[in-house]
Write a structure and sequence with these properties.
Layout (H helix, E strand, L loop, with lengths): L1 H14 L13 H10 L6 H32 L11 E7 L4 E2 L3 E11 L9 E7 L19 E9 L12 H7 L5 E4 L13 E4 L5 H19 L6 H9 L7 H10 L9 H19 L3 H6 L2 H20 L3 H18 L6 H15 L7 H17 L8 H24 L1 E3 L2 H25 L3 H22 L5 E3 L5 H14 L11 H10 L10 E5 L8 E4 L4 E4 L11 H12 L5 E6 L4 H4 L2 H7 L2 E6 L6 H5 L3 E3 L5 E4 L2 E7 L2 H5 L11 E6 L2 E5 L5 H10 L8 E3 L11 H7 L3 E4 L12 H10 L2 E4 H4 L2 E5 L6 E4 H4 L16
Parallel strand pairs: 4-6, 12-13, 13-14, 14-15, 19-20, 20-21, 21-22
Antiparallel strand pairs: 1-3, 1-5, 2-3, 3-4, 5-6, 5-7, 8-9, 10-11, 10-23, 11-12, 16-17, 17-18, 18-19, 23-24
C-alpha cells in the first residue's frame, strides 16, 4: 500500500509539470487496470509481480487524472479576457481575514451574484481596496471591511498574471492553488464616496462555518493590535496565533531565513503537535478520573479524538498551510489506528499524510513547505526508527538536528539557493523558547482577556530575537550559491541517505561524494568573445543582465513596488544568485525614473557591485550607497573578454540643461561582440533619437534592440528604427499596463522592417545569446517552461 500511495503522489506531481491538460476520457482505463490487478492470484511469483506493477500503474494514473480533473474544474472558472479592466458590479462575501497593505487593504472575495449584464466572473477572486487614487482612476474612500461581511462592489479585474523569470516566483500557480481566479481593485468614480460609488455593505455577517472562522481570526488579530500597540514583534505573535504571515516585516523574515528558524515563525507542524498533545494530556487525565466515562469509552481513545479536534481547530485558525495539513493528517491516521486497534509504522503514517495532502490539494506539490515539511519528518523517522542511540537527551537532540539540517540541504539549495549554516545553533535555543513558551502564552492570551500573557510572550520573543539578530549579522551565517541542476540534487539525496546510515555501517563517508556535484557543477557561462543578455520580466520597467566570459553588468534595476519590495530584492538578486553571478562588475542606472531605478538600492545592498554609472542626481540613495559612482556620458568605453561597451548618450552638455526631462539624459549603451551587437537605449525620446542619428549614425546599428521607452509613441521614430535595423526588438512592458505600451503603430513600425518582436508581458524574461556566427539566439521563459495554468494569450505562440 505504501508503494501505491507514493505512486499516486508521483502521478499528481507529474500532472503539474504538463504544458497542457490531458483529456479525461483516458481515465476510464484505470478501472480496467484495477480489475485486472485484483483478479490475478497473489501466490504465483511472476503473476504477483505483474499484479503489483498493474496496481502501481493504476494508482499512478489515479493521481495523474485526479489532479487533471481538479485542474479542469478550476480552470473552467475563469474571467473572460473581454471583461478585463471593465467596470463590473458584484455582490459577495469577504472570504478571508483582510490584510493591510501600504496603500489599502487586500482580501479574498466570494462572488455570489454578478449585477452587470452578461459579465462572467469567477466565484473566488482577490480584491484590493485602495486608500488613495490608483493610477488615473481614484478609488472610493477606504471603508472598514471585515471577514464574513456581504458587500456590493464595483470592481475592475484581470486574469492572474505574474512575472516569469528563471528560478523566479510563479504568481499564477500561487493564485491557482488558492483558487484566486481573478485579481483586481474596488473602483468608484472620482469624487464619490462609498455609498455614491455603488460600494456598500449589505450584511454585517454571513453565517457560514468558513466565514465564522475567518471572523474569529480577525477578532484575535485585532486583540493583538490592542494589547501590543506599536510593539515590534506583535506581528510574529499574530502569525503564531492565526497564521497571518503578512504581519511579519520583511526585515524580520530576513533574520529568520538567515538563521534557519523561519519554520518556527508560522503555525508549523511542531506547534500543531504541541497543541494536540496538550489537549490529549488534559482529556486523558480528566477522563481517567471518571469510571462511568471509561466504561463507555477508553480514556486513550477519547484523548486521541480530542487531540485531533484541537489540531483541526488550530489548523483552521492558521489558514490550513501545508505543514499544518501534514501534521493534522498524521495525527488523524494515528488516532484512527488507535480507535481501530491497529498499529501503523511511522513510514506508513507519513505516506498516508502525504497522499492525503496531494488528494485534497493537488497543487501543494508546488509549495516549498510541502517538500521541506515532509522531508524533515522523513529524515527524523529515517534516523530514529529502529536505532539505538547513546544515552543522553542532549546527544539525541543534537543527532536529530544534524540529520535534519543535512537532509534538507539539497531541497534548500534547489528551492532557495541558500542554506543557513547557523541553523542548528539557532534552532537549538529557538525551538524550545518559541514552542514551549512563546506559543502557549500567545494562544492563552488570544483566548483569555489577559493582556499580560501577550506582553510576557512578546518579552520572551524579544529576547529570542536579540540572539537571532546577533547570529544573523555574522558574515558567514548563510551559504549562497547557484541553482543546482536536477541530477546533482538527486545524487545529493542519495549521498545524504548514505551518510545517515546507522553507526557501524562501513564507508559512510562515501555519501559525501554524492553531495559534491551539487556544489562543483557550475552553470554555463559565455565563451571569450561571446555575449549573453537576459532582459528580465520586471513588469512595467527595465532590468537587463549582461554577461561576458568573466564579467557581469546590470543595466537598470526595475521598479519599486512598495516600501519593502522592489525588483532588486524580489527579482534581480534571486536571479543573479540562481544564475551563479556572485558579483556585478558594474551597474548602470539609465535615469531617475522609478521603473528603471526603483530596485537599485536593493541590488547594491544584496550583491557586491564594482561601480555605478548613471544620470542620477548626487543625492539619490543609490549614488550615496555605491562604492564608486560616476556619471554616464557619450564617449565612455571599455572592453571585457573581447566584448566592447560604448556609451552613446547623453552628452555632457545635457547635464547642464536643467530644463531637460530625465528621459533626455538616459544612458544609451551599445554592446558589440564578435557575433553581433545589442543596443540598450533606456527611455530616450524623439529629440534624443534625432541627436544620436546626427552625431553617431553608424554606431546605432544592432542585431537586437530593447525598444526605447517601452514602445511609447514618443520614441521609435521611423528614422531611428531604420538606423538600428534590428533583427529582434524587445518591448519591456507590464501586463495590461495603463499606458497602453507598446503602442500598436510602434509595433507595426518594427514589424514592417521585418524585426522579430518580443514582449516581456507575453514572453517573460527574454534571453539573447550572441555566441554563434549565424546570429543571436533568443529564448523566452514562458516558451521554455510551458505550464497548463498560464494564459494561452500570454504565451509567445498565442496558445497554439
Amino acid at each position: 500500500m505504501r508503494g501505491n500511495l507514493l505512486a499516486f503522489v508521483l502521478g499528481v506531481w507529474l500532472l503539474q509539470q504538463q504544458a497542457a491538460l490531458p483529456a479525461l476520457a483516458w481515465a476510464w482505463a484505470l478501472p480496467v487496470l484495477l480489475l485486472l490487478a485484483l483478479g490475478m492470484p497473489r501466490q504465483l511469483g511472476r503473476v504477483r509481480l505483474l499484479r503489483a506493477g498493474l496496481l502501481l500503474l493504476a494508482f499512478f494514473g489515479a493521481g495523474f487524472f485526479w489532479a487533471a480533473f481538479m485542474a479542469h474544474q478550476r480552470l473552467a472558472d475563469a474571467l473572460p479576457p473581454a471583461w478585463e479592466g471593465r467596470d463590473i458590479r458584484l455582490v459577495g462575501v469577504v472570504a478571508a481575514l483582510p490584510a493591510e497593505t501600504e496603500r489599502g487593504i487586500r482580501f479574498a472575495f466570494d462572488v455570489e451574484r454578478v449585477l452587470t449584464r452578461e459579465a462572467l466572473v469567477p466565484r473566488h477572486i482577490q480584491l484590493t481596496y485602495y486608500a488613495e487614487g490608483f493610477g488615473r482612476e481614484p478609488a472610493a474612500p477606504l471603508p472598514v471591511v471585515h471577514a464574513g461581511e456581504r458587500w456590493q462592489f464595483t470592481v475592475r479585474l484581470k486574469r492572474p498574471h505574474g512575472n516569469a523569470n528563471p528560478h523566479g516566483f510563479d504568481f499564477e500557480v500561487w493564485a491557482l492553488e488558492r483558487n484566486l481566479r481573478a485579481t483586481g481593485y474596488v473602483y468608484a468614480p472620482s469624487g464619490k464616496g462609498t455609498e455614491e460609488g455603488g460600494n456598500r455593505r449589505l450584511a454585517g455577517m454571513v453565517y457560514r462555518p468558513g466565514y465564522l472562522v475567518e471572523r474569529v481570526r480577525e477578532r484575535i488579530a485585532q486583540r493583538f493590535a490592542q494589547a501590543l500597540p506599536g510593539q515590534p514583534y506583535a506581528g510574529v505573535l499574530k502569525a503564531l496565533a492565526v497564521g497571518e504571515q503578512n504581519a511579519i516585516s520583511p526585515q524580520q523574515w530576513q533574520v529568520f531565513l538567515r538563521t534557519g528558524v523561519n519554520h518556527l515563525m508560522s503555525i508549523s507542524g511542531l506547534h500543531v503537535t504541541m497543541v494536540s498533545g496538550l489537549a490529549f494530556a488534559a482529556v486523558y487525565w480528566l477522563w481517567r478520573r471518571s469510571s462511568r466515562l471509561t466504561l463507555r469509552l477508553p480514556a486513550r481513545k477519547a484523548a486521541a479524538a480530542a487531540g485531533v479536534l484541537a489540531a483541526l481547530a488550530y489548523a483552521w485558525l492558521s489558514g490550513f498551510g501545508v505543514p499544518t495539513q501534514r501534521t493534522l493528517y498524521m495525527l488523524a491516521v494515528v488516532a484512527a489506528a488507535l480507535w481501530l486497534n491497529r498499529a501503523n509504522s511511522a513510514s506508513t503514517v507519513l505516506i498516508l499524510a502525504l497522499a492525503a495532502v496531494a488528494l485534497f490539494d493537488p497543487w501543494a506539490v508546488f509549495a516549498p513547505g510541502f517538500w521541506l515539511s515532509f522531508g524533515a519528518v522523513a529524515v527524523i523517522f529515517y534516523v530514529g526508527a529502529g536505532r539505538v542511540w547513546k544515552p543522553g537527551l542532549l546527544r539525541g537532540w543534537a543527532n536529530v538536528q544534524w540529520a535534519v539540517t543535512l537532509g534538507l540541504v539539497p531541497a534548500l539549495l534547489l528551492l532557495f539557493q541558500q542554506v543557513s549554516l547557523i541553523s542548528p545553533l539557532a534552532n537549538a535555543f529557538a525551538i524550545p523558547v518559541v514552542s514551549l513558551a512563546v506559543v502557549p502564552l500567545t494562544l492563552a492570551g488570544a483566548v483569555l482577556p489577559l493582556d499580560f500573557l501577550l506582553q510576557l510572550a512578546h518579552g520572551i520573543m524579544a529576547g529570542c530575537m536579540a540572539l537571532l539578530e546577533w547570529l544573523s549579522a555574522l558574515p558567514d551565517a548563510v551559504w549562497q550559491q547557484h541553482a543546482p541542476p536536477g541530477w546533482t540534487v538527486m545524487a545529493a539525496l542519495a549521498g545524504v541517505v548514505w551518510l545517515l546510515l546507522p553507526r557501524g555501517f562501513p564507508a559512510r563517508w562515501l555519501g559525501a561524494v554524492g553531495l559534491l556535484p551539487m556544489f562543483l557543477v557550475l552553470p554555463p557561462k559565455p565563451e571569450p568573445g561571446a555575449l549573453w543578455l537576459t532582459v528580465l520580466d520586471v513588469g512595467q520597467g527595465l532590468a537587463v543582465t549582461v554577461r561576458t566570459a568573466n564579467h557581469a553588468l546590470l543595466y537598470d534595476a526595475g521598479p519599486r513596488f512598495n516600501n519593502d519590495a522592489d525588483s532588486g530584492n524580489r527579482i534581480i538578486a534571486p536571479y543573479l544568485r540562481a544564475a551563479g553571478i556572485k558579483k556585478l562588475d558594474g551597474l548602470i542606472v539609465s535615469h531617475d525614473d522609478n521603473d528603471h531605478s526603483g530596485g537599485a538600492v536593493s541590488v547594491l545592498r544584496e550583491v557586491p557591485v564594482g561601480w555605478l554609472a548613471s544620470s542620477l542626481p548626487a543625492s539619490h540613495p543609490a549614488v550615496e550607497q555605491a562604492r564608486r559612482a560616476l556619471p554616464c556620458y557619450a564617449g565612455q568605453s571599455w572592453e571585457w573578454d573581447g566584448v566592447r561597451f560604448e556609451m552613446l548618450h547623453p552628452t555632457l552638455d545635457r547635464y547642464r540643461d536643467e530644463a531637460l526631462k530625465d528621459n533626455a539624459r538616459g544612458c544609451v549603451l551599445k554592446i558589440t561582440s564578435r557575433f553581433g551587437a545589442a543596443l540598450l537605449p533606456a527611455d530616450i525620446e524623439q529629440d534624443s533619437e534625432r541627436e544620436l542619428l546626427a552625431r553617431a549614425p553608424d554606431a546605432l546599428r544592432a542585431a537586437v534592440l530593447v525598444a526605447p521607452h517601452h514602445g511609447s509613441r514618443t520614441s521609435s521614430t521611423e528614422e531611428f528604427v531604420r538606423g538600428v535595423s534590428p533583427e529582434a526588438a524587445i518591448f519591456t512592458v507590464g501586463y495590461r499596463n495603463r499606458f497602453g505600451h507598446p503602442r500598436p503603430d510602434i509595433v507595426a513600425r518594427y514589424a514592417a522592417l521585418g524585426s522579430r518582436l518580443y514582449r516581456t508581458d507575453r514572453s517573460g524574461a527574454v534571453e539573447v545569446r550572441f555566441d554563434n556566427p549565424a546570429g543571436p539566439t533568443v529564448r523566452e521563459s514562458r516558451g521554455l517552461e510551458r505550464r497548463y495554468w498560464r494564459n494561452a494569450e500570454n504565451r509567445p505562440d498565442g496558445g497554439a
